[in-house]
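Quick note —
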Amino acid sequence: MQDVERFRKRAIFQHWWIVACSLLLGLTGLFLFLSWVSPAAWWGWSRLVHRIAAVGFVGIPVIYFILNPKSTLEWLKEAFTWNKEDLGWLQAAPSYYFGGPEEDMPPQDRSNTGQKLWMLVVVITSVVFVITGFIMWFFQGSIPQGAYQAMVLLHDIAFIAGGTMLLVHIALAAFHPRMSEAMRSMTTGKATVDYVKTHHGKWYERIAAEK
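Predicted structure written out below.
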């Protein structure tokens, strides 16, 4: 069966790198949050691993942006561009994910509305993580205690929101029968024409017209 290229190797590498860093950050952050449960913080090692993972979490996307500014900006534009078809997707999604008719879903672009929602969560929580994490790391003794605690609270809220959506994202990609090719496309870079037509119809029509 004919395949369509969904992602390039560099995008796949960045995706899995961020996944790995996110899991490390989540695990070590949880240990830090529960540091009162000895030895949850690994006697200080979890903080070190957390900071190393944070550098990786920020560093690779920055390098990717420097090397691929056009595709990065297109990705950001897609995440923040919403229309009536996205609203229709949100309305039809509950039925669809529990086995409802696929034809009820409005045609989608390169990323469907659910993916765009995840992209927004990634962008917003990442900004919160970077700002609050930077302040907590380098200015702990230089700002009022109340301001520092506010940074901790915002960091924790972003962790809860981002972590919850990450679990949903993983569960859908790994286990939902209608999303099986989403995982394949993020490992091989390719998806079948049938999958792209049904899940990203608008995008398929556009790239087909360009050939």
